[in-house]
Specification:
Elements: H1 6-20, H2 23-39, E1 56-59, E2 64-66, H3 67-70, E3 76-80, H4 89-99, H5 101-107, E4 110-115, H6 119-129, E5 134-137, H7 142-146, E6 150-152, H8 155-163, H9 168-172, E7 178-180, E8 183-187, E9 193-198, H10 208-219
Parallel strand pairs: 3-4, 4-5
Antiparallel strand pairs: 1-2, 1-5, 3-8, 6-7, 8-9
């Protein structure tokens, strides 16, 4: 049986939008993603080999997650996503629950899904899908900004969203339009990034296999 593909799941989402969305709405979505791809400062993205200073994340069930705690026994895998109601995130995170979380648990590594959305709003996605991994708030995008992966929609998109009563800052509870790009960052026990994959296009996200391989490489797990 072929392995499940996150790329295909997200392509299916886009195809459904092509079939069902108003053409102007679809064009706006496509243009916004294309703009982010064209203008992204890739040189500023977090890179393998970067050192990581200490940070705190707020798990939606109340635990304070520090960097030291996350990597105390094995590498940590951080999956940055937008917010609890994001359709693509509601495809990607359940995929990671199926395809990534079991392998990381077997390796002793912690998986944390990270969003700037405030905990009282963010908790909904963990409850709805019954995630076994941790879901945490990056308050004020502090870590995402440090990793160079945050963005804001262009002025026209923000104005259109506000006119529809759909300002993202109200959705996230942050009061700003800043969001992280989808990203996966693997940090080892000496606080060094060993794998980083950042996508300016929120319909392009990291498959499970390279993340598992990165953690296995850190732990020197023999190839099967």
């Amino acid at each position: 049986m072929p392995k499940e593909s996150l790329s295909q799941l997200l392509a299916d989402l886009h195809a459904e939008r092509v079939r069902t969305w108003d053409p102007a709405q679809l064009k706006g979505n496509i243009d916004q993603r294309a703009h982010l791809v064209a203008t992204a400062d890739r040189a500023g993205f977090v890179q393998a080999g970067d050192g990581v200073a200490g940070f705190n994340l707020e798990e939606v069930d109340g635990e304070l997650l520090t960097l030291d705690k996350l990597v105390s026994d094995a590498p940590a895998v951080l999956v940055f996503f937008r917010f609890a109601g994001c359709p693509a995130c509601n495809i990607a995170l359940p995929y990671y629950q199926r395809a990534l979380a079991p392998a990381l648990k077997a390796l002793g590594a912690r998986l944390v899904a990270v969003s700037p959305q405030v905990p009282q709003k963010l908790v909904e996605i963990k409850r709805r899908h019954g995630f076994t991994f941790e879901v945490a708030t990056d308050r004020d995008n502090a870590l995402g900004r440090r990793f160079g992966i945050t963005f804001e929609a262009d002025a026209a998109s923000q104005a259109a969203a506000k006119a529809r009563g759909a300002f993202i800052g109200d959705t996230t509870g942050t009061g700003t339009g800043e969001l992280p790009m989808p990203a996966v960052v693997v940090i080892d026990q000496d606080h060094t990034v060993r794998f980083a994959d950042v996508s300016p296009d929120w319909l392009v996200r990291t498959e499970a296999e390279p993340v598992i391989a990165a953690v296995e490489s850190i732990l020197a797990v023999p190839a099967q």
